[in-house]
Amino acid sequence: MRRNELALLPKLPLLITESAEEFDALRDAFEREIKPQGIIEQLYVHDISAIVWEILRLRRCKAMIINAGFRNALEHLLMQLLTGPGQYEYQVQDEAKTLAHSWFTEQEAKKQVSEVLSRFDLDESAVEAEAIRRSSADLELLDRMLSSLETRRNKALGCVAEYRASLAHQLRESADRIIDAKGVLRLEDAGSERSTAA
Amino acid sequence: MASERQIAANRLNARKSTGPRSGAGRKRASRNAYRHGLTLNITSTVEVAKQLDKLARKIAGNTDDAITLECAGEIAQAELELARVRRAKVALIERASAFGELDPPQLTVTQMIQTLNALDRGGRHIVPKPIDAAATMPSQQPERLAEAIRRGLPQLRKLDRYERRAAAQRERGVLELADRIKSEHNL
User: Taking CA atoms, which of A25, B29, B61, B118 is between 20 and 30 Å from B9?
Assistant: First the structure.
């Protein structure tokens, strides 16, 4: 039943670098939680999984954008910190560039950068902050997309609950009508009849 | 507000502008407003129409009620629209990852002016070679993918709008279907 319904739904397109097994595992996890009944609920579970998959993709991208900007951020920060009074930034540009480049590979350079930062009561979080500041335009766009996806995910979750509640209500009403129409013996009536017989 | 004289002048000028005259020009102009085709009807191919029909019937269940079938069709249509936008998003990221950009390199206005000025003077202006955007992409994954998403962000954001619209259409369809089932049960 479930396999038939899934076959009808369009497959989620994945990027070359993404794994179909990982997506299936994510959807299975949602299925275990939501326990969809019928095609409509299955459709929502598929949608929620697709949205969460995209949220994860964009979150990874966000972290990567900050990491990718780390070297430029460090270089820029070092230029500002190394520039002494009466000096121009271009005069320390080469030193900052070399130090920022070596920071990723050499322990000594790392120590040197830490010393420069601590001179101004700063630490590595200042570099991260600068990386974020420099990519703020991209990060803002990503954040907007993320919040739009999160809203849609929450809405889809709400829709499953709403649809399920509405269906349950209908089933209850139908069951009540069947009982009323068939004149099924009520429990209290059955009890009173038994006591009379006794 | 424009004066009578200005209005008359505008009308006169407008008559001079007749748009493209050649067949090729007219064909090109007819596609001026075309951007990505996401607003086109989804059932443009037989395969999609079949898929749509199967999904709609599954959603509608065992019913011949025309309104229920209509609601189910709307939900199925929205579901396939969503899939189409998602495919477009992935294709866009993959393209940005392969080429480093979404549009082919074009001459800047300054470069164009320089070239035209050089031609006016009867000389020759050497147009600089365009930057190979693919060469500016990180060579390793997942950095390359992140950079591709970053470069495609404005377009991805636009596609997001279409996705939201399709999702809203599906929600409306589901609500209508639920109401329809309810009224059928009440009959």
Answer: B29
